[in-house]
Amino acid sequence: MRVQPMDELITLLSKQAEQIEKLESHAATLAHDPQQIQRYRCILEEKARLLSGLAHLSQPITKKMPPEKATPVQHMLNRFSQSATTSMRIGSPFYMSALLYPQDHQPGQPNDLQLFIQQLKEQE
């Protein structure tokens, strides 16, 4: 049985979301330790790198989708990637830590990437 592009995309994005969640969790343990500030920054930069590559990484999959599905999906992935690229250009740990989180985000709520994955699952 062949894997459908949407299933393939959901799997890819879910793996990326898991990696990002692990990085964020690790960064949170270092955030308040002044001796770990460089390591904290490196972890946030890795998070931003993962997000900045999301659109490119997903493109071979979205090309297999019908245009009416691929266009909005690729648009959202481009937004994630562009925000992450901007955060790396600025070099702000605060900006990098805030990637995927709206201003009114509450702890325990899913981030924007997790919400996007959920929306994709509901479209199937």
Verbal overview:
75% of the residues lie in helices and 0% in strands. It has a single domain, classed as Four Helix Bundle (Hemerythrin (Met), subunit A). It is mainly α and 124 residues long. It has helices at 5-30, 37-52, 54-62, 67-90, 93-98, 112-123. It comes from Halodesulfovibrio marinisediminis DSM 17456. This is FlgN protein.
How does the helix and strand content classify structurally? mainly alpha
Order of helices and strands: HHHHHH
Would you state the CATH class? Answer: Mainly Alpha
CATH architectural arrangement: Up-down Bundle
Q: Level of helix content?
A: over 70%
| DSSP strand count | 0
Q: Report the end-to-end length measured between terminal Cα atoms.
A: 17 Å
Please, what is the average pLDDT?
95
| Largest sheet report | none
Rg over alpha carbons: 15 Å
Global geometry: elongated
Q: Remind me, CATH topology? A: Four Helix Bundle (Hemerythrin (Met), subunit A)
Number of domains: 1
Question: Low-confidence spans: pLDDT under 50, at least 5 residues?
Answer: none
